[in-house]
Design goal:
Elements lengths: L1 H18 L11 H21 L4 H12 L11 H20 L3 H5 L2 H25 L4 H12 L6 H7 L5 H28 L5 H33 L3 H21 L4 H13 L7 H23 L4 H6 L1 H29 L3 H11 L4 H12 L5 H26 L12 H6 L2 E5 L3 H17 L3 E9 L7 H20 L3 E2 L2 E5 L2 H11 L4 E5 L6 H6 L2 H8 L4 E5 L9 E6 L1 H5 L3 H15 L2 E8 L18 E5 L2 H8 L4 E6 L14 H9 L4 E6 L3
Parallel strand pairs: 1-2, 1-5, 2-3, 2-4, 5-6, 7-8, 7-10, 8-9, 10-11
Antiparallel strand pairs: 6-11
Length: about 675
């Protein structure tokens, strides 16, 4: 077998030498062909492997093996590859942190803690024991066991597609993932220090306080600084992305300063900053695009270059190590899922879903074994065994998740998306002010992308005062082009509308009818002028005549700065047939903005008991208070809140403001709080 592999390797290298220019005696070093080869791998390898139903990550690793020093020798794992691979490693851990939310741990917290400790402790015990039996040293055994303990949610997109994200099994795994990955990375930090001979009492006296302060400063300080930055410079998309990347490397470097592995800092940076970036926002799309298409593939290719297949063939022990590691990794992840499922009373499909999600080894495993290899704690044989384990588990995880996830029934309390789809299928957004255009579009994008809808940016030029000048037409084109760019950045269908009409409100209403819009999103300054009170404002006229829901928004701060959403309702709102749609809208925004949702029911009733609430699909708790609506709401809201209200319905009284008096009173007294007012037509 060894001779066969060497012959294949030599034949490949002979072909490479034949097609390689004669001036190059060794691996290709010219930057242009090196980058060309890597780009070709990033393009072709994932596509080929996905066609045969294998994860793209497998293709990138094997392609790195093929072009690396232990394959055909096309490329050398030089300082450039190592640099870009390190950046990709940090980005990989950062992306893992972005997919982890502290709210996942709070939701079913007890079950998440039990599963998290079990899926960490059992692999540590089995892994350490099995590696010691293979003749490994204690430190190396513990480190390899920590690789078994961590896991990567490779199959999470499958769960999202199946619609079972809100099930008890999935939320338990999400919370447990945070616990086991953090503990595994801490084990890595301790083992590295022990291997370097610096695991002393002074290390513990320094590490524990330093790590505590560092973790608190990251999880508390990064969101604070981020909200300030986005509030101050949120209009500059390039600055937003640069800030996120800079935060990643600053937090990672500070981790290195306190003698902790930078990958721990990258993971914490992702957890800290994920609450600032809506999942469906253009900024999140840019981060995921750059990470998944450039930096992370660089890391996977560089890992593939570490693999030496000749060792697997030349040393029978390497096959034994790979087989033991793969078997123990699978068994050590099945036992916690099975045991936790029995304790929680879950059905077998839910147990297998937990196992399928948690069995995949990729991000933390690759990170840990790479660090261990670079400090000579483990040999290349162990790296090869780890890669074999990763290949098997990354293939098994999607298959198991798909096979048994389809048999898991969604929780009955999970809100359906039907009302959201009806509310936000085609969203019309009039844009006129460049300074507020981003806020409105981001709000509309969240709703449109959630339901795979279409965004309809609209700009109207009024010819009531005379002919339209060329300058105004150019400004219209620029505004619509900006809106289209923002929508494309969020991968959302968009149809821009530029029109001339005799009045703004008529243009909005006609465009809504012509383009079949079923939601209109308008900007609002938060108050009415004397002229508006006498003649009626544009918003009043649109709401009065609109045949579709109208959502009016006043953003005092960027929407991504939202920490809490307060939905304030009256007795009439709870009795309305549109109550379910209102709740669904609030839950959609809370989910995408990663904010907490608080429903406030304010009543003037003198009854001591809370009134009965009609049946509604919601997981939010409803707080019941008595008193004046404005004063009750005003006492509760904070600057980083997003207040959702419903408008007064007075279509027959022309002198009555359609939004009602309450939203304007609250908006005038709380200028730093963003407000959304929702109106449903009769």
């Amino acid at each position: 077998m060894q001779t066969s592999w060497l012959c294949t390797q030599n034949t490949g290298r002979s072909l490479v030498e034949f097609f390689r220019p004669s001036v190059l005696a060794g691996p290709i070093t010219d930057p242009v062909p090196v980058f060309l080869i890597i780009m070709a791998i990033m393009l072709v390898a994932p596509l080929l492997f996905e066609r045969i139903k294998l994860p793209g990550i497998v293709g990138l690793i094997l392609a790195g093996l093929a072009v690396g020093p232990y394959g055909f020798g096309l490329l050398e794992r030089d300082s450039t590859i190592v640099l870009l691979g390190t950046v990709g490693l940090l980005f990989l851990m950062f992306m893992a942190g972005l997919e982890t939310s502290l709210d996942d741990l709070k939701y079913n917290a007890d079950k998440a803690v039990i599963f998290g400790l079990a899926t960490f402790g059992i692999p540590m015990l089995l892994g350490t024991g099995s590696m010691l039996l293979l003749g490994y040293g204690l430190l190396a055994s513990i480190l390899v066991a920590s690789c078994f303990a961590s896991h990567t949610l490779v199959a999470l997109p499958i769960v999202m597609r199946l619609g079972v994200m809100r099930t008890q099994a999935v939320t338990t795994v999400l919370g447990g993932t945070l616990i086991t990955n953090v503990l595994a990375l801490l084990v890595l930090a301790v083992v590295v220090r022990a291997h370097q001979g610096s695991l002393t009492l002074g290390f513990w006296l320094f590490l524990i306080p330093a790590l505590t302060i560092y973790t608190f400063a990251t999880l508390w300080g990064v969101p604070k600084v981020g909200r300030w930055f986005f509030r101050r410079f949120g209009h500059d998309e390039s600055a937003e992305f640069t800030f996120v990347v800079a935060t990643l490397f600053i937090v990672s470097y500070v981790a290195e300063l306190i003698e902790v592995e930078p990958i721990i800092g990258a993971f914490l940076a992702g957890i800290a900053i994920t609450q600032l970036i809506p999942q469906l926002s253009p900024l999140m799309n840019r981060i995921q695009f750059i990470g998944n298409t450039l930096f992370i593939p660089f890391f996977l290719i560089s890992v593939g270059m570490l693999i030496n297949p000749a060792i697997l063939i030349s040393e029978p022990r390497s096959l034994l190590v790979a087989g033991v590691m793969t078997f123990v990794a699978i068994l050590a992840k099945f036992l916690p899922a099975w045991g936790s499922g029995k304790v929680f009373g879950l059905q077998f499909p839910s147990v297998m879903l937990m196992f399928g999600l948690s069995v995949a080894q990729a991000a933390s495993t690759l990170a840990a074994i790479t660090v261990a290899f670079e400090i000579d704690l483990v040999d290349q044989l162990t790296v090869n065994g780890t890669i074999a384990m990763i290949l098997v588990t990354c293939i098994a995880s999607p298959w198991v998740t798909t096979r048994w996830g389809s048999g898991v029934k969604p929780d009955v309390t999970t809100p359906t998306t039907e009302t959201t789809q009806k509310l936000a299928d085609r969203i019309l957004v009039p844009v006129a002010n460049p300074s507020t255009e981003d806020h409105l579009l981001n709000l509309a994008l969240i709703l449109a992308k959630k339901s795979d809808g279409t965004l309809l940016p609209l700009h109207i030029l009024s010819d009531s005062s005379g002919p339209i000048t060329g300058e105004k037409k150019i400004q219209q084109q620029q505004l619509l082009a900006t809106a289209e760019t923002i929508a494309h950045a969020a991968v959302t269908s968009v149809e821009t509308i530029g029109r001339v009409d005799d009045s703004i409100e008529k243009g909005i209403l006609r465009a809504a009818q012509e383009r079949d819009a079923n939601l209109i999103v308008c900007g609002w300054k938060g108050y009415s002028s004397y002229r508006d009170n006498f003649f009626g404002s544009v918003i009043d006229n649109v709401i009065r005549q609109a045949t579709v829901p109208v959502l009016v928004a006043r953003f005092a701060q960027p929407i991504r700065n939202t920490e809490r959403i307060i939905l304030a309702l009256t007795d009439l709102d709870f009795a309305s047939s549109k109550f379910q749609k209102t709740i669904t809208l609030a839950e959609t925004l809370a989910d995408e903005l990663k904010a907490t949702l608080q429903v406030l029911h304010v009543t003037r009733s003198s009854r001591r008991k809370a009134p009965k609430v009609p049946p509604v699909q919601t997981e939010a708790t409803i707080e019941y208070v008595r008193g004046n609506f404005v004063s009750r709401v005003a006492k509760m809201i904070q600057p980083n809140d997003l207040l959702i209200l419903t408008s007064g319905n007075h279509p027959d009284i022309l002198s009555m403001r359609m939004l009602g008096t309450e939203p304007e009173v609250i908006a005038r007294t709380h200028r730093e709080t963003s407000i959304v007012v929702l109106h449903f037509p009769r």
